[in-house]
UniProtKB/TrEMBL annotation:
Entry protein name: Carbon-monoxide dehydrogenase large subunit
Signal peptide: none
Keyword Transcription regulation: no
Stored SMART domains: Ald_Xan_dh_C
Keyword field contains Oxidoreductase: yes
Organism: Streptomyces melanosporofaciens
Domain of life: Bacteria
Family annotation (InterPro entries): Ald_Oxase/Xan_DH_a/b, Ald_Oxase/Xan_DH_a/b_sf, Ald_Oxase/xanthine_DH-like, AldOxase/xan_DH_MoCoBD1, AldOxase/xan_DH_MoCoBD2, AldOxase/xan_DH_Mopterin-bd_sf
Molecular function GO labels: iron ion binding; oxidoreductase activity
Amino acid sequence: MTRQESGRPLVGRSIPRREDRRLVSGRGRFVDDIALPGMLHAQFVRSTVAHGEIMSMDLSAVRRVPGVVAAFTADDLAIADITAQLGRPRSQFVPTAMPVLARDKVRYVGEPLAIVVGLDAYAVEDGLEAAHVEYAPLPPVLGEETALADDAVLVHGEAARNTLVDVSLFATDGIDAIFDAAHRVVEVDVTTGRQNALPLETRGAVAHWDDREEQLLLQTCTQVPHQVRTVASRCLRLDERAVRVVVPDMGGGFGQKCVVGREEIAAAAAALRLGRPVKWIEDRKDALSASFLAREQHYRARAAFDADGRILALDADVVCDMGAYSCYPFTAGIEPLMASAEMPGVYKVPAYRVRGRAITTNKAPTAPYRGVSRPQYVMVVERLFERAARELGLDPVEIRRRNVITDFPYTGVNDITYDPGSYLESLNLCERVIRDEGWYDTRTAAAAEGRHVGIGYACFSERTGYGSSAFAQRKMQVVPGFDISEVRMDTSGAVTVTTGTMSHGQSHETTMAQIVADALGLDIARVRLHQGDTDRVTYGWGTFASRSITVGGSAVRLAAERLGDKLRAIAAALWDTEPEQVELAGGHVRRRGGDGAHDVLTHQEIADVAYLRADLLPKDIEPGLTATATFDVFNDGTFSNATHGVVVELHQGTGQVEILRYVCVEDCGVAIHPQVVEGQCRGGIAQGIAGALYEEVTYDAVGEPSATSFMDYKVPTAQEIPEVSIHHLETPCAFTATGAKGAGEGGTIGAPAAVLNAVNDALRPTGTELDHTPITPQTVHRALNPEPFP
């Protein structure tokens, strides 16, 4: 039902998604669906060693393989490097160039060395097998201990002790004295495994030169099309006007596609060199082992508490393994800077000290992945509260109640001002649901039977709507933040809206249209969204960090309101009244208080005047119906919040962790489309559970990744993911034009901590506590069965 039919606002309603008919009927168009005349196919010769000097690379046999058209090295294509920068002194940040194709040295298994182009994918695969590369192997750097050793082998010669970032953002005066005088000090040593974001659609690109437009058309699945255009133009030494990036439908990204990759640049260079279209589609092996990875982090943290369980100070040392290179544009600082700035989270922490480091190792590079350090530091802080509750003899929920922020706006010890949220309310509601459903009784009964049932919670906030000022605080040389939208009505009264965000499953075609239709009083069927085309969208920073509705949606709302103002002004001139006497509602333009046919105009009638009868317009109104707006968040951002509650049972014979119940109480401000918000929660929670219990990328002693297929990399299915009960609270945001906060990452942020706490609660009779994810069946089995098998 449309607004015109119902007369009710669309925002806040779960209307049918406009994307669904196309996608579920197989009419979506993804990168691999693109077929162009004369198109060639490409794949990459990749390093087979983790660390070594390239002594020789012989591609002559490759070029003789039937069907192979060309094989190019870095020297053949002469592409400029990709270098991400922070405006920090050398003592805090070391920039490292990432060559599009490796030259002289390789730094991880799977690093691209050469691009092979052929008539079809089969010829290309044959060509790859004919490549001959000789290396002088170097000792691989595979973890924190070897990376930071005084005599460490260097991944990059310019980065001493393999440290790319070393920043101490906060150090409260007198913090050591606070710890010395505290009633109780608790410590945790938390590590998290390396993960793959694993979008359903792997990365890919189709590139070709358009002679008529004198323009490179690069069609690729990216969350950040304008950033890809900027980097491609600079690497290929083209005017930015001469590069057009277009994103078709996209099957997921989760952050892995919000950085600029090397392969799409190399494919574009090959297309320019050959004068023919070139397609590259990442295969699943490369996606698992050589694509951007995430998450491998180590936290040593301690917290001081008084006798009543109130936190007095937090001290943390954060080390993030970022792999071989800094990602563009965020750099290797993305993980440690995020953790350092936001670790106090939802709690009133009076004193804070943190050191954040990013190290480089011989593993595939790291990119942001849904949550970006927040699943890790939330797990750290929540583990500290759990441990303090146990040592002080307090209920784990009660200790949180005593410490969560309740007075807003609240400026934390980390110099961040939090906008109003429902931190205490979400905690109380989550516990009440768990208790009312009888799970505490279940836990007690299970213990009497010798079974291991545990209950765990996690409270957190999700900083969303990062504006330019927030990214500037990280000293990024490329500062994302604002968004631009244009809303244009044609002579039929239909509307086209552009956004710089990029949907990869978030339902932008529906939610953005809801915002516009409400602002213009228009039938939503007459609103069309354009995104992901750098020639049609002025500029945009794409979709990441839950910014689409907070920033992009706000720009859309402001542009639509400006267009609405012009519609009212034209109608007022035609009726010889004031614009305030004109309303846009129910699919029409109406004069307030009027009830005759002459008091109602259609949008098309107004558009006719604006475009076709400009002689009827007052002199102060320009012809046409187009409005543009920008939006930026100039405060510290917006903060969604949630509490997750989990009930698990540990099976003594197998070590399996079974999730019996999962409750999420979330507050993302005004929910534009509640069903979409729930989908974001459920999908995020699934990925969070995956990190808590299943997924990990590991390496052998020489740096070979062990998980190169789904036989080795455990991805949970619907069988492992429980039904999730979602409860909504709503604290409208004062800093966005829609009242919405972000909802994209919260599910992933809370799940690992809640699951880990539940497992540790179930393990309490054993005296064992776990502080590493993923929690494997082997680990749980050892905890439940300390005696070895006879």
